[in-house]
Amino acid sequence: MFENRAIGLALVLPAAIFAAALFLLPVGILLSEAFQTETGWSLSAYGEFFASSRNQTVFFRTLKLATLVAAVSAVIGYAAAFAIVNLPPTSRGRMFGLVTLPLMISPVARTYAWLVILGRTGFVNQILVDLGLIETPIRILFTETAVFIGLLQLFLPLMIISLVSAMENMPRDAVPAARILGANWLQVFWKVILPLTREGLVIGGTLVFTGSMTAYITPAILGGSKVLMLETLLYQRVTVANDFVAASVIAMILIVMSFSANLLLKRLATARQSR
């Protein structure tokens, strides 16, 4: 596009300086605190963090919930995306608009709505009591189930959007051809749809997994102090304990887990493609 490469670099330079000064530098300073000790550089802060059984529980809970949300989002997302791409153009646009509509609403408002739905006097408990499945309302709020539901509702649209985009780029005759050749729907999905949409799955899985790990509002409201996750623990370390070293450790763990998830999904997609 540019005859002189220097012109392109000059156009990128202001954005690069802005990102480095206002994002990379502060984050680097924050993360470096986890390696600094009175005697020099050390990994002792990480050892102290994982030596605590409470921190181990929070770490594995965060990893478990983020993985479950990503996996369930992929299952629901594939079904929804396949249905959307096979709709007529007019209906497809309307359905896609409904999928993206929640993204236009504040996560705070969307999360607080679950307080009304999942509370002891909420819609879910009322239905269960009316159906005779339970005699008294059960506690759903401030449990891992509530956090899982909130995170799934929050990030499911991102998975659906990624998969719809990937499926729209599939050859239109791929699925009908596989069906004509005798493949059942499970074989169609495993051998045709999944390989052709792996890039969308990698993008959607990364967005959902990292979003579930780093979301603060939803775990804080629906989980409270009973269901701590890494992001809520980080907030407590900074605001309550004023422990920036522990906060730096948690921040580094979140960054490493996010990049690891992306690399793992890419590796799985590449392995699937090679086979």
From TrEMBL:
Compartments in which it is found: Cell membrane
SUPFAM superfamilies: MetI-like
Transmembrane stretches, start-end: 58-84, 96-118, 138-164, 201-224, 244-265
CDD domains: TM_PBP2 (cd06261)
Predominant location category: membrane
Membrane topology: Multi-pass membrane protein
Database matches in Gene3D superfamilies: MetI-like
Protein name as catalogued: ABC transporter permease
